[in-house]
């Protein structure tokens, strides 16, 4: 404290010799920095689930805390995607249908399309409708939901005009799709880069990490014997990580693909978790490898479902069907059908998560607490499986990314779903789980979770790209029914631009621009890779300097001791 006071007095003495302008500038800078820090601190209290996540971190460790932070990230991401799609696509369509804008419906279909391809009757229910039919529609996305703004077929407006302003809904629909995909990509890359920088700086060699665990790994604030035993096991695993009816039938048939996919998603992680015990990997690598295996199994299931749907959509056995370009008899509005499948997958995934918590986790807790049978006690309380829980939300988010083009309000459902799942998982964690014996570092977990999420986003690009650029759009519903494909709205819009701007855009899309742009991008990428390698070498050199300085200090201390010991 005396040293701090002396340093403060020196600073105040230096200020006396500065001009009034520089004194005011320095004072204003300090005041502004203080205000910004206070505002930042106040905003941190508005952060969603701030107290809950801190409480989870204190009781169950940073690894499980990183899962709940990841869940919060997806809630915010889906909410922003929902705001984007609602404001750009849904709201203008709703307002136009109420007559507030001078709106026009889709233009005349292309010349090579037969009139029978444009027939679409979404509502087949007439007369008395039973109550269970509404339940079936609610869970499957059919019936009354099919005609709402939840699905693609609702958006039949071509343009909306207010005075001199003209709103092109098909173009806005396509650009909003590109925007939410680009926003997701940038946000994930931003988080991944931050995690990569932390891992780069905090990377330690085995000897240094071993010494840190042995000499500085114990928490001397621990007073509870159970917490001490848990900490002992934690250090042990860290050291190992360094060294090694008609209604029912109809609903069942509609949900059969979702049930098969969910069953495969449930069985595959159990098989992988059993096999990895015999593969002799370190605990941290076990989590990563199991997670990657299960991710590809789950995403492959979605791919098989989409491939099956698109083979049925594109299969044409008659000349009338070939004239439409897709199976209009089975799927007159195939985009809404794909949206319904994605909707069912998301709803069923949520039901399974809720059912497992209610009918598996809590009964197991009850049996372990009140039953003294040896098999039950041998099973014991479950640990919070980070790979399985991360897989659930990455799988659901991939469904949301794919389905948003076919169901623009699906992000709203995903936001509500993840919001509820947060509390379901929190209650299950606190009341049915025990702290994990194998700790997971939060920084590396966040980085790896985002990498897995990035894989899901990249795989979502493939079916969306095929749907937009290759598969003919439905000619009986949707904003793109006047175009051969959804992408055709882009060249059609460019034709309305001035000639000079058209030449510039065609030049950007040509090979003469693409090849140099690719080469420059590769050079920039190689530059940043080399820069990262240089930074890593600098970090290693600084560590070596710290080691040398510690050795110099030991040498000097030894010399001083020898000098003092002489008579």
Core attributes:
567 residues; three-stranded antiparallel sheet; two-stranded parallel sheet; 3% strand
Number of helices: 19
Instruction: Give the neighbour order of strands across the main sheet.
Output: 1-2-3
Structural class category: mainly alpha
Largest sheet: 3 strands, antiparallel
Question: What's the SSE blueprint?
Answer:
Elements (H helix, E strand, L loop, with lengths): L1 H15 L3 H26 L4 H11 L1 H36 L4 E4 L25 H10 L16 E6 L2 E4 H34 L3 H11 L8 H19 L2 H30 L7 H32 L4 H6 L9 H37 L3 H6 L2 E2 L2 H18 L6 H23 E2 L7 H28 L19 H6 L4 H11 L1 H55 L2
Parallel strand pairs: 4-5
Antiparallel strand pairs: 1-2, 2-3
Helix pairs in contact: 3-4, 4-6, 4-14, 4-15, 4-16, 5-9, 6-16, 7-8, 9-10, 9-12, 10-14, 10-16, 12-14, 12-15, 14-15, 14-16
Give a structural overview.
- This protein folds into 3 domains: 2-44; 52-196 and 250-495, no CATH class; 497-567.
- The strands form 2 sheets. A 3-stranded antiparallel beta sheet has the order 1-2-3. A two-stranded parallel sheet has the order 4-5.
- The protein has helices at 2-16, 20-45, 50-60, 62-97, 131-140, 169-202, 206-216, 225-243, 246-275, 283-314, 319-324, 334-370, 374-379, 386-403, 410-432, 442-469, 489-494, 499-509, 511-565, and strands spanning 102-105, 157-162, 165-168, 382-383, 433-434.
- With 567 residues, the protein is mainly alpha-helical.
- A hairpin with a 2-residue loop joins strand 2 and strand 3 (165-168).
- Helix 4 (62-97) runs antiparallel to helix 6.
- The chain is globular, with a radius of gyration of 30 Å.
- The protein is built from 19 helices and 5 strands.
- The protein starts with a helix and ends with a helix.
């Amino acid at each position: 404290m005396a040293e701090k006071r002396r340093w403060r007095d020196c600073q105040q003495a230096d200020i006396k010799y500065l001009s009034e302008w520089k004194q005011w500038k320095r004072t204003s800078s300090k005041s502004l920095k203080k205000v910004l820090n206070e505002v930042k601190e106040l905003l941190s209290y508005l952060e969603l689930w701030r107290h809950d996540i801190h409480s989870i971190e204190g009781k169950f460790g940073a690894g499980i805390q990183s899962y709940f932070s990841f869940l919060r990230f997806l809630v915010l991401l889906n909410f922003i995607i929902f705001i984007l799609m609602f404001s750009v696509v849904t709201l203008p369509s709703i307002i136009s249908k109420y007559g507030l804008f001078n709106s026009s419906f889709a233009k005349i279909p292309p010349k090579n399309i037969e009139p029978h391809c444009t027939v679409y009757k979404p509502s087949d229910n007439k007369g008395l409708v039973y109550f269970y039919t509404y339940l079936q529609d609610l869970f499957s996305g059919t019936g009354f939901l099919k005609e709402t703004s939840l699905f693609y077929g609702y958006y039949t407006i071509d343009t909306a005009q207010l005075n001199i302003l003209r709103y092109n809904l098909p173009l806005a629909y396509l650009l909003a799709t590109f925007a939410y995909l680009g926003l997701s990509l940038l946000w994930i890359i931003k988080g991944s880069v931050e995690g990569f920088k932390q891992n780069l700086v905090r990377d330690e060699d085995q000897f240094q990490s071993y010494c840190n665990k042995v000499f500085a790994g114990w928490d001397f604030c621990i007073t509870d014997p159970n917490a001490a035993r848990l900490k002992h096991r934690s250090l042990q695993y860290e050291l190992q990580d360094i060294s090694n009816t008609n209604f029912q039938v109809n609903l069942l048939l509609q949900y059969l693909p979702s049930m098969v996919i969910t069953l495969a998603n449930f069985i595959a992680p159990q098989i992988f978790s059993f096999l990895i015990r015999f593969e002799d990997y370190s605990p941290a690598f076990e989590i990563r490898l199991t997670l990657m295996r299960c991710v590809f199994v789950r995403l492959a299931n979605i791919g098989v479902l989409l491939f099956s749907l698109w083979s049925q959509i594109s299969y044409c056995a008659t000349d009338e069907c070939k004239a439409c370009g897709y199976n209009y008899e089975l799927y007159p509005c195939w985009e809404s059908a794909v949206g319904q499948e994605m909707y069912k997958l998301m709803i069923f995934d949520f039901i399974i998560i809720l059912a497992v918590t209610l009918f598996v986790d809590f009964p197991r807790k009850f049996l372990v607490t009140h039953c003294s049978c040896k098999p039950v006690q041998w099973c014991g309380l479950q640990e919070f499986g980070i790979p399985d829980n991360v897989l659930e939300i990455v799988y659901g988010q991939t469904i949301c990314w794919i389905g948003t083009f076919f169901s623009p309000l699906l992000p709203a459902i995903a936001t509500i779903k993840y919001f509820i799942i947060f509390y379901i998982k929190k209650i299950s964690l606190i009341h049915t789980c025990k702290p994990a014996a194998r700790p997971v570092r939060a920084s590396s977990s966040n980085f790896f979770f985002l990498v897995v999420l990035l894989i899901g986003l990249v795989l979502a690009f493939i079916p969306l790209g095929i749907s937009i650029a290759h598969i003919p759009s439905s000619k009986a519903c949707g904003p793109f029914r006047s175009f051969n494909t959804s992408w055709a709205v882009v060249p059609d819009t460019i034709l309305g631009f001035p000639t000079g701007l058209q030449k510039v855009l065609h030049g950007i899309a040509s090979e003469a621009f693409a090849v140099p742009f690719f080469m420059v991008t590769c050079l920039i990428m190689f530059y940043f890779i080399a820069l990262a390698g240089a930074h890593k070498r600098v970090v290693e050199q600084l560590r070596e300097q710290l080691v040398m300085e510690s050795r110099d200090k030991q040498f000097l201390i030894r010399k001083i001791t020898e000098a003092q010991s002489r008579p």
